[in-house]
Specification:
Helix 1 links the parallel strand 1 and strand 2. The protein has six helices and seven strands; from the N terminus they run βαβαβαβαβαββα. It starts with 6 loop residues before the first strand and ends with a helix.
Length: about 180
């Protein structure tokens, strides 16, 4: 019996290292169908190379300044993995959207999370995956992973953060899908 695989659209703004790890892991597990990638920048060459060498059927939309329902057609879940723009309320109300946020929500909503953690001398850092609501980083938390904060400089903390996300984001997405 073949299980149905949800069609996921990914939103991103940066280099997409988390998305790369997710796509790579999904090649082995095949838990979902990567439907499309939407970025407000240029998609990284690493992700493009993975898509083309593995012959993945993924629509790519680059340099998109405003997300429209037209480019979301067919998406059953939208996963924002480092998308740094607000999502229109009409889109939020129409689609199931989850977001990867680099803090243990409800702490440190918005930007510059690592800097604020260091300023406040937090003992732990981590990430949250939450449902997107019309309020910034305010939706229901689906999962969180944390680790003892040992780095006392922002670059070190950002690197530790990425390592933690790379280790767990695909696993947490898998749990959410099942």
């Amino acid at each position: 019996m073949k299980l149905y695989k949800k069609k996921i659209t990914f939103l991103l703004s940066g280099k997409g290292s988390n998305l790369f790890k997710i796509l790579e892991a999904n090649l082995k597990k095949e838990l979902f169908h990567p439907h499309s990638i939407i970025t407000n920048n240029t998609l990284s060459l690493n992700i493009k190379k993975l898509i083309y060498t593995k012959k993945l059927d993924i629509k790519i939309y680059e340099n998109i300044s405003h997300i429209s329902p037209k480019i979301l057609k067919g998406a059953e879940l939208i996963f924002s993995v480092g998308y740094m723009k607000t999502i229109d309320r009409k889109i939020i109300n129409k689609y199931e959207i989850i977001n990867l946020h680099p803090s243990l929500l409800p702490l440190y909503k918005g930007l510059m999370t690592q800097k604020r953690m260091l300023i406040n001398q937090e003992k732990y850092f981590g990430f949250s995956i939450h449902k997107v609501s019309p309020l910034l980083d305010d939706g229901e938390v689906i999962s969180q992973k944390s680790k003892l904060l040992k780095n006392k400089n922002e670059i070190g903390l950002i690197n530790s953060h990425k390592k933690l996300e790379h280790q767990y984001v695909f696993k947490e997405l898998s749990k959410y899908l099942n």
